[in-house]
Design goal:
about 500 residues; 2 helices; five-stranded antiparallel sheet; 37 strands; mainly beta
């Protein structure tokens, strides 16, 4: 065995352990994948980015960090969240002229050991975007939730988002440049070099012209909010935003603020696909609006169905949706859930054409309305986690649009005390259930919910946080895609046989 072969094996294994985002596969002699016999190992490094929470002086923001206990994870490691404007201690860009590293500010939240959530808070309009890095035992499944309360003004209500990993492409169907809306694309750069980003906008008639949306520079270790109204002079009620990165990588999220119906974060939708699921429409939703976009050159025809507690049903009058290529389509579904838990399922009526989609959901009536978004999401996979749950204000919705599934839901210890508990549920195929998620015994503070698929699947899930303030039903919804806490690493002997043949 030569040194080159050993080096290649070591490099491949190290790449999988560090990124946690790629499945390493090696073709065998017949050209078939051998990933099915690969080992699943915990990732050893995870990055998360949290956007600047608010521009309101009366905003109060809570952060909750949690890492589930993962078998086989390292015994050591650390996790930290710091302001995007604070350079890392070992970064040459963060050193003062005297050669000493600048001392970072006190973190807004200090993550605790796996299995124990940690909470922190900040307030006002000066709260920065955050950059987080976790290694070793803190990395697999690391989750950070950002939840903001704004008592009054534009976008008042409850705004929440999961902090996300940096990437190079994002889709946001459901944004708007209408007169009542103030939408920002928040870009956060975690790296030591500048990122260059293009933003494409697509309305009901196609691409919107802009002279300032290409080549946007996001400085190193910085957050950059971009007001959509400054990118185009063409107001659009329904807009699809495409963020693509020319160089570097960023975190991206849209903050959608409405003069009358509050606001929330619009997270990036799942990658374009022929079939999509948007889980967890609140049973008391008074208005649901579906926004979809086909990024290719082919129109898409979609069957629209609601996965209810009793099975899949077709909304009367909205049985199908035609999406023209390159144009944003939208349809009002009204109070489609009619008092029951529900998830929207889109499937092709004929040939499969990739689309992206999201729901704009409103609760309340008249002056007491509040808005949240449910983008199409990836399935739970092996495991997914959501933090910052409360004993009475959290609703966990789970749907199995195909065959049935059995899941295990674990409530962690509380951030200030309590004991973790688990409970199993059976989700019938084609249904959505608001499951009675367990609450930690002796709960103090907030806690995390971890969903694991025991059998069956695929399963999709979301969590709604709700709080009523002065009659306004504030709420926010976060999806639970697979936490990508493990990565496939081929067995060494398979790597050797493949590499020696090359």
């Amino acid at each position: 065995m030569n040194r080159t072969t050993l080096s290649l094996i070591a490099a491949a294994t190290a790449l999988a352990a560090v990124t946690g985002f790629a499945t390493l596969e090696s073709p065998d002699a017949s050209g078939d994948s051998v990933a099915g016999t690969a080992a699943r190992l915990p990732v050893e490094r995870t990055s998360l980015l949290c956007p600047q929470p608010s521009t309101s002086d009366i905003a109060d923001t809570a952060y909750t960090s949690f890492t589930p206990v993962v078998e086989g994870a390292s015994d050591s490691g650390k996790a930290q969240l710091q302001a995007a404007t604070e350079e890392s201690a070992d970064s040459t860009a963060g050193k003062k002229s005297g050669g000493k590293a600048a001392k970072p500010a006190k973190p807004v939240v200090q993550p605790k050991e796996p299995g124990k959530p940690a909470a922190g808070d900040t307030s006002g309009a000066d709260a920065p975007a955050l950059v987080g890095i976790a290694s070793g035992r803190f990395a697999p499944g690391w989750t950070v939730q950002e939840t903001t309360r704004v008592a009054a003004g534009n976008g008042r209500g409850l705004l929440g988002t999961n902090c996300t990993a940096p990437d190079t492409e994002f889709w946001f169907p459901g944004a708007s440049t209408a007169a009542a809306r103030t939408d920002y694309v928040h870009l956060t750069n975690p790296d030591d070099s500048a990122a260059v980003v293009d933003i494409d906008l697509y309305g009901k008639d196609g691409t919107l012209k802009s002279t300032v949306a290409d080549g946007i520079t996001v400085q190193p270790h910085a957050g950059e909010p971009i007001l959509l109204n400054t990118l185009t002079g063409d107001p659009q009620t329904d807009l699809t935003v495409h963020v693509s990165v020319r160089s570097g990588r960023v975190g991206a999220a849209v903050q959608a603020l409405d003069d009358k119906t509050g606001g929330d974060w619009l997270a990036a939708a799942a990658d374009p696909a022929g079939s999509l699921v948007m889980p967890g429409i609140p049973k008391d939703a008074t208005s649901v609006r579906l926004v979809a976009f086909a990024p290719g050159d082919t129109d898409a025809d979609l069957k629209v169905r609601l996965a209810s507690p009793s099975g899949l049903i077709t909304p009367a009058g909205n049985e199908t949706l035609h999406v023209k290529a390159g144009m944003t389509s939208a349809v009002d579904l009204g109070d489609v859930t009619r008092g029951e838990a529900g998830s929207l399922v889109l499937t092709p009526t004929g040939s499969s054409v990739p689309v992206v989609a999201a729901l704009r959901v409103v609760r309340g009536k008249g002056a007491d309305q509040e808005t949240a978004f449910i983008p199409a999401t990836a399935p739970v996979g092996a495991r997914a986690t959501v933090a910052d749950n409360t004993a009475k204000g959290s609703t966990l919705a789970v749907t199995a649009p195909g065959g049935g599934a059995r899941i295990r839901v674990t409530a962690s210890a509380g951030s200030e005390g309590g004991t973790a508990v688990s409970k199993t549920f059976t989700i019938k195929g084609g249904t959505t259930q608001n499951v009675a998620a367990p609450v930690p015994s002796g709960l103090k503070g907030t806690y995390a919910l971890t969903v694991e698929v025991v059998s069956g699947g695929p399963v999709y899930a979301s969590r709604m946080l709700a709080v009523t303030s002065e009659g306004v039903p504030g709420f926010t919804i976060q999806n639970l895609p697979d936490d990508r806490g493990t990565v496939s690493v081929p067995q060494a002997e398979q790597d050797l046989s493949v590499l020696l043949k090359q």
